[in-house]
Amino acid sequence: MKLGLVGNPIKHSLSPWIHKQFLQQVKQQGDYHLFETEENQFIATVAQLKQKKLTGFNITVPFKQKIIAHLDGLDANAEQIGAVNTVVNENGRWIGYNTDGLGYLEALMDAYSFLFSDNQKRVLVIGAGGAARGIFYTLCQHKFQTVDIANRTMNKAMELKLLNKSKVTKTTCLSFEEAEKQLGQYDLIVQTTSVGMNEDKKVLALDQLTKDTVVSDIVYQPLITTFLAEAQKRGAYIHQGHMMLLYQAKLAFQNWTNREVNVSPLLEDFEQQIK
Ligand code: ATR
């Protein structure tokens, strides 16, 4: 089975390691290659992958939207989100999927199932960039009571809000100041900006955070960001970014192979690699 990843930069990607473990789990032969591509070489790279008849590939920054024009079809999720992270060769037709949001949700369900016990839960998404899209869309599909957005730039939050197609879930766009004041009312807070990635910084103040809130950060380097460390100190449950990375890979692998794989046997070694 031939698999791969297209993006830039991807030299330090952990995906080859993850998929190698999944291949071993299902006892399949295969490789997962990195195709690091400049913008002006993108079309040629995609043509090359199709020619090589890959089973499928992942697609990451900065090509998650650009790939759409080169596919034969999209699944409903990817179409709504407007971005693709997984391409599957379905009998010669190249179909795009987005496993980012569903990967996030499945990881969250496995760790904190109580968030899914009723549909009264209130969620805050911090950030409105590319990484927020799949997560926000999927949370709204899941019928939480509210999924609010806090972002530095208000019109980007308003644009993201348009992805809420749910008749049940309400969304309010907030400034960071407004969000900081009402942090105590949320059951789940998801940090999706790049703030805190390899730096000792957090995107907003957590003074009003209440105990027992679940706080997620999609940044996985470091494993415990300043944001999560502060949340933990205040008695919150934390949900780390590397779990989303593993679960989006699990769902991508399942799309390629139709075989169920398990994340937990990988976890300890995976954390060692990130440290
Ligand atoms: P990605 O695709 O990784 O999400 P992006 O589309 O550039 O990257 O979005 C980055 C997100 O991080 C945005 O929500 C951005 O806020 P703006 O919409 O106001 O630009 C947010 N962000 C980045 N740097 C930030 C900072 N220093 N403080 C607050 N928010 C920041």
From TrEMBL:
The keyword Oxidoreductase applies. This is Shikimate dehydrogenase (NADP(+)). Pfam families: Shikimate_DH, Shikimate_dh_N. It is an enzyme of class 1 (oxidoreductase). Gene3D superfamilies: Leucine Dehydrogenase, chain A, domain 1, NAD(P)-binding Rossmann-like Domain. It comes from Paraliobacillus ryukyuensis. GO terms for cellular component: cytosol. PANTHER family: BIFUNCTIONAL 3-DEHYDROQUINATE DEHYDRATASE_SHIKIMATE DEHYDROGENASE, CHLOROPLASTIC, SHIKIMATE DEHYDROGENASE. CDD domains: NAD_bind_Shikimate_DH. Coiled coil: none annotated. Residues 5-87 form the Shikimate dehydrogenase substrate binding N-terminal domain. Homodimer. Residues 119-194 form the Quinate/shikimate 5-dehydrogenase/glutamyl-tRNA reductase domain. Belongs to the shikimate dehydrogenase family.
